[in-house]
Amino acid sequence: MSPLLPPVDPSVTAQLVAALTPRLRKRLDAGVAKLAGRPVARDGDIVRLAVDDDTDLELHAPGGVVTTVEAIRCGCLLAPDCLHRAAAASAAPVAEMPDPVAETPDPVAGEPSLTKAPRTAPPTSAPATTRPATAASAADDAPAGDDDPAPESATPAQRTAATALHDAAAAVLEAGADGAGAVLQAELLRAAHTARLAGLPRAAGRAVAAVTALRAARDADPAHRLGDLTTALRDVLLLAHRLPEATGPELAGLRGRVRQPYTPDGSLRLYGLFAEPVLTSTGYAGTVTWTADAAGRLYTVPDVAPGGAERAAGSADRAVRIGDTSLTHRELSRAGLAVSGATVSPTGRLGAGAGVRAVRAPGVSWHAEPLDRLWTVPVAEQIARALAGDLDVPKAKDTDSGGDAGTAGEAGQAGEAGDGTNQPTAQDGRDGRDLLFLDVTLIGTVREAAGECLLADCDGLTVRLAAAHDAPALPDRENLRLLALLAHGRGPGTRLRVVARLTPAPLPRAVLLAASRPTDPDAHVDLGLDRLRRADLPAEPTAGTSGDAGDARPAPTVQPATAPGEAPVHLLRRRVHQAASGGRRVLAFPGSKESEAARLRRYGLGTAGELLTALHASAAERARDPFGRLLPADTGRFATAWLGAAVYTEEVDRALCAAAWGASSPGLGSR
Fold first, then answer.
1. Which residues make Cβ contacts (< 8 Å) with residue 77, sequence separation at least 6?
2. pLDDT tens digit string along 564-598?
3. What's the whole-model pTM score?
4. Cis status of the peptide bond prior to 554, with omega within 30 of 0
């Protein structure tokens, strides 16, 4: 995937690949690789790609996106039936779906998940507000009666689209990331386009996210994470599995919302909490500033647009687009805002309409009201809130999992679920459900595969605090190294107040977003935007004491012992990830599958053992025709077995995470 090319609409790529002859389809992956290193020049809305010394290919992208097949023109003799047009479309980034605001990627927490914890605003006694009455909401909120019509069910077009999504995703899973070339990606994009036209924005968005993850994997993108690809494929298969039989509110939640409503919210007095950079795998970047009102409800002010890490770092000094205020995001995170005529989305995102007025107001420190109440919520309650799944799909019918990422002031944060009520409680679908407000004491560091993490004591729990971003243009990693000095030599046992985002794992783990300044507890540092300096740390102890001025030793590295009775869920998770990466054939090889299933059963994970056995059996099973020739594999059966294993590992990981934090375990909802 070439970031120099403009994004291409999924339907354009699907049409161009479908028009190729079988012979050209076999050469498509080689054509994509050839174009990857060719020079690119931009002239206004036209991007020119030099196919060779004598041939240029033009992509006309008004508004920055290629939206029609005719917008890609090639100068070779075989055009328009040449391979170059389809190869260029396959090499370009996938454009965001223009309609499905309900299911675009969450720019801060990564891709949304059907089994991911919905975000919860801190529990407060906020006054009620009402949302505007729409046809959909009026129908949802109407009282049930004996004469009510039967619950709405999926239309034939939606059932057909769900089947197409399932078949395309199953074919990708059959081949794995290593074998899912441009042709299979185009089939999944075609299915996504069909789903969008059928009114399934949530499934369409997840299919596009799966293609983006596939391209990152095949291009060896350093930002690629196998877990992202696994999650996207699981969501597509799960949505396609549930949609045909869903009815009523469940169907509304699975379909998603096409447009995000902004409702009037009167006058607001907001207090800056912190700001964090946004950096997505789909080419969007920016800053989101978090604020809170007097009742502790969270609101976000985003500025997200196409760009990379440089834009994420630079947008913090851009003025927020609300009213006439000249506050930058960095300033707003420490100041306040008085807003009149405010409009707010169900996820707490502030609108920037013409009638909104805003002026600067004084801010408060984290230790003063109303922000201090965010840290008074017990840790176990915060974890339970973050892990509460959205398996109760009626709560997700007001989902807004993202915004129009290309529109500054309207894009940014995304929640997973809303309860469909008019009462803005802790379950109203606002952003921030996975935010943790912790008081910690730094005690050391621990080495992980992705780098070092801070170890901190939080109410008797040893918590791992990792960097939120690894991009060199962002200061997260360097700030983490400086904070590690506080655990040894520069004030051991330093207590900090931090904002973190939960990372579900068998051990207590979160990513650091902001922290109080070590030398000034009333000030804070946005760890993804501000760069800590050694002057911000406590002075080194004088010579002759432990950790003298010449002691430059790093923080002590701790190697926590693994509990001997730890559940080996990784045995099943590893096979799920292997299938997403290498395809069905990887699991069909002979190996230690019987011993792995037996080990799972010995630890009381009988269901995991059965799922692992079924996964291997479906991967190895191949039927033959009367002449002894191998028949095509049953991709549907393998996809079903893989989906069951993927959903199970997600739920077990969530339960283990809750147990590690000492929180109540989320229930396993029916699917």
1. none
2. 456 788 889 999 999 999 999 888 877 666 788 88
3. 0.77
4. no
